[in-house]
């Protein structure tokens, strides 16, 4: 994964990469949003989006670049102890970069409503109805203790959709093996300025800006 974080929304490899990959890699950069900070209002306000993207996500990117440099040095020295000690920071900052890169594309000012086509058929097959799916993903996301994410993922081995929760910035695929389709950030920095500590209100609002076109595209890609 380390050699492919630059394409974080498409990356799902393991965290430990060969030395050659680390040596030749480019530094990770903060991806641009495909819309303005105020574009998701009134559901998510501009101040939240600006802080979330330009401060929180940027911090994950910067810290990931720093820890990768340290990891590269430890690999070059054969310092296994340091390599092991850096794994939590790689997981946290790398996961933060991956998760947020997916999250931004999962949102759209033209979002909301329900998916169509193959994704909708898969949701009905695996959850009974869109309403049941929405209720289950909302409940899982509300129930995350502390900080974390609620996810809709694709189980490639079983050929079906699954809902999961991940703590902190744990990446879905690296943690559960599920391919991420739709992620909902339930860290307080994603909603507190607008919704205070009432996470259910934030989750009710975010369904109005879900980019089902993007989620459907991700589903179609992962099935290939």
TrEMBL record:
It comes from the Eukaryota. Its main location: mitochondrion. Residues 27-108 form the Manganese/iron superoxide dismutase N-terminal domain. InterPro entries: Fe/Mn_Superoxide_Dismutase, Mn/Fe_SOD, Mn/Fe_SOD_BS, Mn/Fe_SOD_C, Mn/Fe_SOD_N, Mn/Fe_SOD_N_sf, SOD_C_sf. It is found in: Mitochondrion matrix. Keywords: Manganese, Metal-binding, Mitochondrion, Nitration, Oxidoreductase. SUPFAM superfamilies: Fe,Mn superoxide dismutase (SOD), C-terminal domain (SSF54719), Fe,Mn superoxide dismutase (SOD), N-terminal domain (SSF46609). Its cofactor is Mn(2+). It catalyses: 2 superoxide + 2 H(+) = H2O2 + O2. Residues 115-218 form the Manganese/iron superoxide dismutase C-terminal domain. Homotetramer. PANTHER family: SUPEROXIDE DISMUTASE 2 (PTHR11404), SUPEROXIDE DISMUTASE [MN], MITOCHONDRIAL (PTHR11404:SF6). This is Superoxide dismutase. The gene is Sod2.
């Amino acid at each position: 994964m380390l050699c492919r974080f630059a394409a974080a929304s498409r990356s799902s490899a393991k965290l430990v990469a060969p030395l050659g990959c680390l040596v030749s890699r480019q530094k990770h950069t903060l991806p641009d949003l495909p819309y303005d900070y105020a574009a998701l209002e009134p559901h998510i306000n501009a101040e939240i989006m600006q802080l979330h993207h330009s401060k929180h996500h940027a911090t994950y990117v910067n810290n990931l670049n720093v820890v990768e440099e340290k990891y590269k040095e430890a690999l070059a020295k054969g310092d296994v102890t340091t390599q092991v000690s850096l794994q939590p920071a790689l997981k946290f900052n790398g996961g933060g970069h991956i998760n947020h890169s997916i999250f931004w594309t999962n949102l759209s000012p033209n979002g909301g409503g329900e998916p169509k086509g193959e994704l909708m058929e898969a949701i009905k097959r695996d959850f009974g109805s869109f309403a049941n799916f929405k209720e289950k993903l909302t409940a899982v996301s509300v129930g995350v203790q502390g900080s974390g994410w609620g996810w809709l993922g694709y189980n490639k081995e079983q050929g079906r959709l699954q809902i999961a929760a991940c703590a902190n910035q744990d990446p879905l695929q690296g943690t559960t093996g599920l391919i991420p389709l739709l992620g909902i950030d339930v860290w307080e920095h994603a909603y507190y300025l607008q919704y205070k500590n009432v996470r259910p209100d934030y989750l009710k609002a975010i369904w109005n800006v879900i980019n089902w076109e993007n989620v459907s595209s991700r589903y179609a890609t992962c099935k290939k």
